[in-house]
């Protein structure tokens, strides 16, 4: 019992401790139970919170986790607002300046292009006035074009061997798709790979024979293909043609094309573009339709570089090739009509344009549209000539009416009312034209009834404009594909560099054009600088620039570029003249072709003038015949040269002194006068480089710097053409 009591006492003592421990164990057990019961709920809540935080992070970004900032004081808020307003103002001014530069450059390019075409249009006006007031000239002239064409196409004269990179690629008739692939591979190479001249002759000859069977207006149908593609001006831009073929596919029965003229001139690959288009036409005659443009003309080619391109590539055979190219031109159709509802011509129309008359014209007479087709025994139909001229050279205008196109010097400006009447008269829905470069490659005018399409991207300079082509579905709803070739080159440049390249190209072309008026500009400047200090006011400088050049440009904006380094109140006009005498401008001028060069290179135009003045068709011009021609020209086309001076020039043409001028003497006089003109220009340059009236110093650093920038920015690095190297996008029609 004691023992048990002792045990109880021990147990009691131990019991007390156990009791305390058991309380702790019980408490611990309850806590464990509570924890175990609550753990799933806590995990679920945490997961929900985590998910919500992640969603918030994805929706609002890391900013929502930043430490809240204290509210800004009114002074701090005002500073922030002022800074934001200042940045916005600076950015808007920067954008406005860039847009102003862009528009100024575009105006320079377009005005120079139109001024250049005015020179060629003057030839047409000259012929028109001669024929108008010398009716006897319109009844006789050259041999029948048909007989000449037949003889040339059947000519079997052996070709001379060319030296250099002549590839071994063979072309056979009929031309197949495999030949097209070979031609593309040859033409796209950076090296000046050339076909053998016999294959060039083969393509030109077969194309002329086939085109001869085409009507004046090609009838195109989408009944089978359900769509058709229309391309505008290419102007020797082979890279753009390859981009179109790469993006849109080769022609086929289900993929027909209409190419709307101006295949050559200005670009360096004009011959390759022409040969590839003709080969496509021969390979797919029912899927390729070629329209004539105003640059499919030997007179234009002599002025804008294509004739020189052919001569450079085939120096031993170029004359024969150019004659064959003329035969292709004369047989090119004048336009196309899709589903009897959409007219496609190169330029436009006038209020006198009659499609029925155009369909009946003998187009083969017009080897050059700028030169009258004088044929033995056939009087010239001036109304017919005007019809062709208007559809090749005209442009749309936003105001009503139909007036002479004074900007180009040829064709007309036709307004929305003229378009409405023309389309209604011929039961057409709308018309597609080309002829004008557009920044985005296309443009709607006249309530969407006139569409302009231009397919040569980078036309004026790298990045200057986009190209485009049209895809019409079976309902003739247009969809545009806009692109720019050589996109990788542009991507390597900053925005500032791209603008600089376009601006430099514009200034270079403008300076070359101003070279024609260089002496006249200096004379006019000196009238407002009696002390010969070299400075005149800004307004006088602008007045002289416009008075002499008549280009209609924003001269105040151009002052800093054409007279660099001058202050804001006056202009050092010597810097303008110095810029025109820099090597980069002189070299660019030498690379170009003057109107006189073009006229002499196109001997046929001079022969036509000779035949018109030779009233009795004796083959010689007498002094009396020349005097009558001068009287007529003076009455209807007055100039600065007096009659006595003109007669004296006629006497100077009489090289053998027999009192008459035959054709050889007439042509030789032009050649000698052109040589003298160039020699005089070189002498003037040498004289100006050594002396300068009262200022005898080299060009300023600012002029030299600008010339170097122009030279660097307009340097062209050639490489193989990659049609995949482009950026393009599809523009759906607006609803």
TrEMBL record:
Stretches for region Disordered: 10-51, 680-702
Record-given protein name: Serine/threonine-protein phosphatase with EF-hands
Main EC class the enzyme belongs to: hydrolase
EC numbers, comma separated: 3.1.3.16
Upper lineage: Eukaryota, Metazoa, Ecdysozoa, Arthropoda, Hexapoda
Biased composition (Low complexity): 20-39
Organism whose genome encodes this protein: Drosophila albomicans
Residue ranges with Polar residues bias: 40-51, 691-702
Keywords: Calcium, Hydrolase, Manganese, Metal-binding, Repeat
Catalytic reaction list: O-phospho-L-seryl-[protein] + H2O = L-seryl-[protein] + phosphate; O-phospho-L-threonyl-[protein] + H2O = L-threonyl-[protein] + phosphate
InterPro entries (UniProt xref): Calcineurin-like_PHP, EF-hand-dom_pair, EF_Hand_1_Ca_BS, EF_hand_dom, Metallo-depent_PP-like, PPP_phosphatase, Ser/Thr-Pase_EF-hand_contain, Ser/Thr-sp_prot-phosphatase
Cofactor: Mn(2+)
Annotated gene: LOC117570138
SUPFAM superfamilies linked to this entry: EF-hand, Metallo-dependent phosphatases
Protein family per UniProt: Belongs to the PPP phosphatase family.
Gene3D superfamilies: 3.60.21.10, EF-hand
């Amino acid at each position: 019992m004691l023992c048990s009591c002792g045990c109880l006492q021990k147990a009691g003592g131990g019991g007390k401790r156990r009791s305390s421990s058991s309380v702790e164990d019980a408490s611990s057990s309850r806590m464990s139970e509570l924890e175990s019961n609550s753990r799933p709920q806590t995990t679920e809540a945490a997961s929900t919170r985590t998910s919500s935080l992640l969603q918030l992070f994805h929706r609002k970004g890391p900013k929502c986790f930043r430490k809240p900032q204290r509210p800004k004081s009114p002074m701090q808020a005002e500073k922030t607002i002022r800074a934001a307003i200042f940045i916005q103002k600076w950015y808007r001014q920067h954008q406005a300046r860039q847009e102003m530069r862009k528009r100024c450059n575009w105006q320079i390019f377009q005005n120079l292009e139109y001024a250049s075409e005015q020179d060629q249009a003057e030839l047409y006006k000259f012929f028109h006035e001669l024929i108008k007031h010398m009716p006897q000239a319109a009844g006789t002239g050259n041999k029948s074009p048909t007989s000449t064409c037949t003889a040339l196409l059947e000519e079997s004269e052996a070709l001379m061997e060319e030296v250099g990179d002549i590839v071994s690629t063979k072309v056979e008739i009929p031309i197949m798709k495999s030949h097209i692939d070979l031609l593309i591979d040859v033409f796209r190479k950076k090296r000046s790979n050339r076909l053998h001249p016999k294959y060039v002759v083969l393509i030109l000859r077969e194309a002329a024979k086939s085109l001869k069977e085409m009507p004046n207006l090609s009838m195109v149908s989408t009944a089978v293909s359900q769509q058709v593609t229309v391309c505008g001006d290419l102007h020797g831009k082979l890279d753009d043609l390859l981009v179109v073929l790469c993006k849109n596919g080769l022609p086929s029965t289900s993929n027909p094309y209409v190419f709307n003229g101006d295949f050559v001139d200005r670009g360096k690959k004009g011959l390759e573009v022409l040969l590839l288009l003709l080969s496509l036409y021969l390979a797919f005659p029912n899927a390729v339709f070629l329209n004539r443009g105003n640059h499919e003309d030997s007179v234009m080619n002599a002025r804008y570089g294509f004739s020189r391109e052919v001569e450079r590539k085939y120096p031993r055979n170029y004359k024969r090739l150019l004659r064959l190219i003329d035969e292709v031109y004369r047989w090119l159709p004048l336009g196309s009509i899709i589903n009897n509802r959409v007219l496609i011509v190169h330029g436009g129309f006038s209020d006198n344009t009659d499609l029925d008359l155009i369909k009946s014209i003998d187009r083969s007479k017009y080897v050059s549209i700028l030169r009258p087709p004088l044929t033995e025994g056939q009087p010239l139909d001036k109304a017919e000539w005007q019809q062709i001229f208007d559809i090749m050279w005209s442009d749309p205008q936003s105001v009503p009416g139909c007036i002479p196109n004074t900007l180009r010097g040829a064709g007309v400006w036709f307004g929305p009312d003229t378009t409405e009447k023309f389309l209604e008269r011929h039961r057409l829905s709308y018309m597609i034209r080309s002829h004008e470069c557009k920044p985005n490659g296309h443009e709607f005018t006249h309530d969407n009834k006139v569409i302009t399409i231009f397919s040569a991207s980078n036309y004026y300079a790298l990045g200057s404009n986009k190209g485009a082509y049209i895809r019409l579905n079976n309902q003739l709803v247009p969809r545009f594909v806009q692109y720019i070739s050589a996109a990788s080159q542009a991507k390597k440049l900053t925005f500032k560099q791209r603008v600089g390249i376009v601006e430099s190209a514009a200034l270079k072309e403008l300076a070359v054009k101003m070279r024609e008026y260089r002496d006249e500009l200096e004379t006019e400047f000196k009238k407002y600088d009696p002390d010969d200090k070299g400075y005149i006011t800004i307004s006088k400088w602008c007045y002289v620039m416009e008075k002499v050049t008549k280009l209609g440009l924003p001269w105040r904006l151009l002052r800093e570029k054409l007279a660099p380094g001058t202050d804001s109140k006056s202009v050092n006009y010597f810097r303008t003249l110095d810029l025109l005498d820099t090597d980069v401008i002189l070299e660019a001028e030498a690379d170009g072709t003057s109107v006189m060069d073009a006229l002499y290179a196109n001997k046929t135009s001079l022969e036509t003038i000779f035949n018109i003045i030779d009233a009795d068709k004796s083959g010689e011009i007498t002094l009396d015949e020349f005097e009558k021609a001068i009287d007529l020209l003076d009455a209807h086309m007055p100039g600065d040269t007096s009659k006595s001076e003109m007669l004296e020039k006629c006497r100077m043409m009489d090289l053998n002194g027999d009192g008459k001028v035959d054709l050889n003497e007439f042509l030789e006089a032009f050649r000698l006068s052109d040589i003298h003109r160039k020699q005089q220009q070189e002498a003037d340059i040498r004289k100006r480089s050594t002396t300068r009236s009262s200022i005898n110093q080299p060009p300023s650093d600012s002029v030299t710097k600008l010339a170097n920038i122009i030279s660097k920015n307009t340097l062209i690095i050639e490489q193989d053409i990659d049609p995949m190297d482009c950026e393009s996008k599809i523009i759906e029609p607006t609803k």
